[in-house]
Amino acid sequence: MKSETKTSTQLSTEQLLPTDIFAALLLAGGGVLAALFVPPSVGFVRLLLGLPLLLFLPGYALVAALFPHRAAEKTNRSWSNVREPLVHGVTGGERLALSFGLSLVIGPLLVLGLGASVWGITLQSVLGAFGLFVTLFSLVGVVRRYRLSVEERYNPSFTVGYARFRRRLSNGGTAVTAVNVLLVLGVLAAASSMAFALAAPPAGGGFTDFSLLTQDENGTFSSAGFPSEVTQGTAIPMATSIENNEGEQTNYSVVVQLQRMDGEQVVERQELTRFSRSVGDGGTWRHKHSLAPSMTGEDLRVQYLLYEGEPPADPRAQNADDALHIWITVTAP
Questions:
Q1: H-helix or E-strand containing 187?
Q2: Sequence-ordered list of residues with C-beta below 8 angstroms from that of 242, at least 6 positions apart, any chain
Q3: Measured distance CA(124)–CA(130) in Å, rounded
Q4: Given 47, 78, 185, 298, which residue has the most CB atoms within 10 angstroms?
């Protein structure tokens, strides 16, 4: 009885954080830190550390949450229905295959979700989404394993797994070994190519993301809720967001004009404000400011003109690098 208690206590301590979950969280953290702090000049290091985060860890974390059981002993590994793996678990090889496959589905869905959100698709938002997904589902997997007995939990041993892999290769003969090795190399090559396409910035394809924002009373920025009617002289709270993806530090200038329009022609313009800032590569600059229009009329255009560097003497949409606008009606007080 004493011996059983000692063994149980020892196993519980060893499994405080399963080895595979700990390794997954460690790799995810390494991928995020490499993307944020490793300079682009050593892109191979960023790619090497970011590859698991993009193409393997999201799927592995989800599989860990779905299948906390150790795989049941079964001579025939074919399943009669889709619920059977949830009950009997999956083998290590099946986990790896599912991890790669599910990651190829999860990654695009996360990016699409970011594109439709207020955070947009930026390096920081993508890293945050992938890192949060891996952490959340890894912790769910840990909790689900703890709810099982020690004998039922999936608790892989990398040493044992590697020995089994080598034994299966040797038992399969030279031809089977060659096919398996080629299959592994093919998967790694495909994954590397996709990761490089996702992670490596296109040469000469830099861009700047320029947007107008409002800020609610809780301090949250939004791309909706712009004022449509104001009183002359009343301050309008506004904000701009400039995200630098040019591949280098860039100096930006913004000129804001209130314009009276006649069709497509500007018949009167008034400069409301201008501001500038140098933004590092990958950085985002959000600038809060207020506008106080003195011109009155219906359907006046508030136009924001963005320039890389100093603005020209006669700033207008035709010579700006980017231009955004909203429409307002200004009434006399």
A1: helix 173-199
A2: 208, 209, 210, 252, 254, 277, 279, 284, 285, 286, 287, 306
A3: 10
A4: 47
Write the pLDDT tens digit of every residue in 166-210. 666 666 556 556 656 666 666 666 666 655 555 555 445 578 889
Does residue 60 contact residue 92 with C-beta atoms inside 8 Å?
A: no
Q: How many CB atoms lie within 10 A of CB 55?
A: 23
Whole-angstrom Cα distance, residue 9 to residue 195?
42
CA dihedral 23, 28, 29, 35 (to 10 degrees): 140
Q: What is the pTM for the complete model shown?
A: 0.51
- pLDDT for residue 170: 62
Sheet (strand 236-245) strand order: 221-222, 207-215, 236-245, 284-291
Tell how strand 229-231 and strand 322-331 pair up. parallel
153 φψ region: left (φ > 0), alpha (ψ -120 to 50), beta (else): beta
pLDDT digits over 282-332, tens only?
888 999 998 888 889 998 999 999 999 999 999 999 999 999 999 999 998
Please report, for residues 78, 85, 183, 191, the alpha-carbon distance to residue 90 in angstroms, rounded to integers and kept in the order given: 11, 6, 21, 23
Q: Which two tokens stand for residue 88?
A: 């009997």
C-alpha to C-alpha distance for 260 and 267, rounded to whole angstroms: 6
| 281 Cβ contact list (under 8 Å, min separation 6) | 244, 245, 246, 247, 248, 249, 250
Collapsing DSSP states into helix, strand and coil, what is residue 17? Answer: coil
What is the three-class DSSP state of 245? strand
For the chain, the C-alpha Rg in angstroms (whole number) is: 28
